[in-house]
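Re: folding output
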Amino acid sequence: MNALIVFALSYAAMAAVSLSMERHQQQVAGRPFAGMALRLGGWVLLAVSLAPAIAAWGTSVGILAWLGFLTFAALATGLQMTYAPRPVRWTAPTVALLGAMAWMLA
């Protein structure tokens, strides 16, 4: 369960950071929009995704596992932005919400 929480928060963070770039904004929404809030939110969400990893596995293993989940989240976000960019509008917020709710319940 902890692995899914860390992955969900990492995926949402990577999606937010990627959507802060004008190129990806064009892919998803068809027009550029304010990306600074997404960039800041993505970095904050990356920091938040570290907390459940450290809480579940301790400091040394938690940071290492977090880096591994960041790698897979970046891969998932990159693949989705390549092959199906439009659904990122609803998948990223949904996954972030589910990950946060699972973390609260755990």
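--- second protein (sequence, then structure) ---
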Amino acid sequence: MQTTGDTGGAGGEGPRELALCVLCGLPAAGKSTFARALGHQLRQERGWAVGVLSYDDVLPDAPLDGACARPPPSRWKALRQELLKYLECFLMAVINRRPVSAPASRTEAMWEDYVTCLKAQDLVFPAELETQSCYLLTKTAISRPLILVLDDNFYYQSMRYEVYQLARKYSLGFCQLFLDCPLETCLQRNGQRPQALPHEIIHLMGKKIEKPNPKKNAWEHNSLTLQSPAFPLEASLQVIDLLLTALENPVKYVEDNMEQKMSKYFLTT
């Protein structure tokens, strides 16, 4: 494992290229399989650093917020936002060339699963064997273009907009990949899983899902819809082009009335 030569100081040069990619779609649409294949391709063919963050692997088991008619459990929403805070801790470490420190307020098991995910992809390693609260960045994490793929359903625009806000806050690249899989295919695949979701949840989510809409939302302009389960070579080239566009065109932090109105709208929906 390669380690950073200088991980202590803040205010470093910052990453050359860094982008967040939201991977969304119905349960069993093939997102995790696609994310693993994409990560392998980007590392092998492009030499990029890639971090695939699967929400299913990090978030504790809980009801799917919004999948039922009743209001979403506040605890589940809080856990999702806590995970974004973990992501922000890592982003700040990469940008400032400093160690990744565990936030004071955290769900211990969830933080450990999150860090395990980063370690498995050669992005961090423990500063000392005796402590699990501080991690150093690997050389891989700061010496190459870095793509962080967030793998989740993200079926509401408001969920994805929170990630966009994080990208805008730190002037990072941002893009969206939507896997458009037929409902019947998702149901069939789900039925073959060891821990299958109730089919009615997937039916409800299929009705509620808000696909990326670049024509309506300017912040979603860098989005791509792929037909699942088939991902031909042409689609692979489209994905690379989408990610390159995100890396080369970071979101500008512009504070104006329209952005403030959009933020307030999504926070209240």
